[in-house]
Amino acid sequence: MAQYTNFKLDSSFAYAGEQVSISTSQDYKNIYASFNSSRNSDVNVKFELMEFVNYSWRIKETKNGGRASSGSSRSVTFYNYSTAGARRFKVRVYLYDGGTGYTNLMQTAYSYEFTR
After folding, report:
1. CA gap 37, 106 in Å, rounded
2. Measuring CA to CA, how many Å separate 42 from each of 29, 39, 66, 90, 103?
3. Could you tell me the domains of the chain?
4. Where is 44: in which H helix or E strand?
5. For 12-25, what is each residue's pLDDT tens digit?
6. Collapsing DSSP states into helix, strand and coil, what is residue 3?
7. DSSP assignment, residue 113?
């Protein structure tokens, strides 16, 4: 079952205040993350899978998700993360101006924390 984190685009965007979301889900082997854009947004999305290890969050893997605009979504899969043990994860999403590739960072957001 997917878990959704809703948030609003901040004042960096022409359409500040529009709601967007991050969703995460998982199966016995993989973790899935998606960013769902608003009707007027145009962003490039970068995903980072983070794990809580030794009292701090560590980046496990980073993936570019591509350009999300006009209500579209972008998804990535993080492969081969075991469900053995009680490991804590979350996904950090970086939103970049859609016209600049991955150079003009505009906002950062986090998914809910989940345990595998």
Report:
1. 14
2. 32, 9, 11, 24, 14
3. 3-115 (2.60.40.2550)
4. strand 42-53
5. 998 999 999 999 99
6. strand
7. P
